[in-house]
């Protein structure tokens, strides 16, 4: 049974809105039909005639006549529908986060999706993965950090950085350190051709050891050039022998030498008394990254040592010497290019020491 037809009275403003809706080519069909029903009802048409013209059931016409009469244009919008209740709620999300703050099960290095689902008991592993992705939580990625406990960190760091930024006049600033135990490994190397025609360079997992060498290096901050020598060991004797060769390379010059806190670098007062033109500057504890020669060691590893093969220790040493000579031919000083430095914090996470 069709309810009694409601009278529809349109204001000028509502009529303009509904007529514009009917003319617009982007209006949805459902909205177009509702607008036509109300306009025809306002013209005094009966419910059955409107239903026949618009192509809907009479009860649909009656519904939208009543909705507009009671609520105006807002009544022509769909009411929110409750839908299916979600299986997992914010409480589930809090349980996952709380579990991540706890150590993983005994014997495991880290949490995984299946381990989390198993520990929760009533949460599907697929939801666990979706939650982790939505919060950008990567269970595999790891970040490392180093905190210096040096009480004089600020003073030592300012001293070293000051030598980089504003070196003393008529003085040489050098960064000195060692790269110990560089192995002379002999590996089979060559090209591997894949079935699709692509060729890759590679090397064998098997290797032969031919000894190790320790590389002592001094980087001149002003020019970027390297002074390097090889040694079998890295004792205080070898360090002071290298420093003797460095001072000989800069006769009658004031030398400011930046070093890390290795024990062989310290307690050399007798040698310093014999070389009054040399002054040692030490980086803060656990902050050897302030020494620019560490940057050069990384370049040496990437450009000269990685993926190479040596049949003897002598060949390794000659290879490194050739690289040092080539590097010095095009050496440039390191330049600080970052304009603004920020400390990146772990947002919303606390770091606990287990």
Tell me what the structure shows.
The protein has twelve helices and five strands. Helix 1 (12-23) packs across helix 2 (29-42) and helix 6 (113-120) packs across helix 7. It starts with 11 loop residues before the first helix and ends in a 25-residue tail after the last helix. The protein has a five-stranded mixed β-sheet. With 354 residues, the protein is α/β, with parallel strands linked by helices.
Strand content: 15-25%
Low-confidence stretches: none
Question: Strand order, biggest sheet?
Answer: 3-2-1-4-5
Order of helices and strands: HHHHHHHHEEEHEHEHH
Form type: elongated
Percentage of residues in helical conformation:
25-40%
Structural class: alpha/beta
Q: Helix and strand layout, with pairings?
A:
Layout: H1 12-23, H2 29-42, H3 47-54, H4 58-71, H5 90-100, H6 113-120, H7 125-134, H8 153-165, E1 171-193, E2 199-220, E3 226-231, H9 236-249, E4 254-259, H10 269-274, E5 278-282, H11 293-305, H12 313-329
Parallel strand pairs: 1-4, 4-5
Antiparallel strand pairs: 1-2, 2-3
Helix pairs in contact: 1-2, 2-3, 2-4, 3-4, 6-7
Highlighted features:
about 350 residues; 5-stranded mixed beta sheet
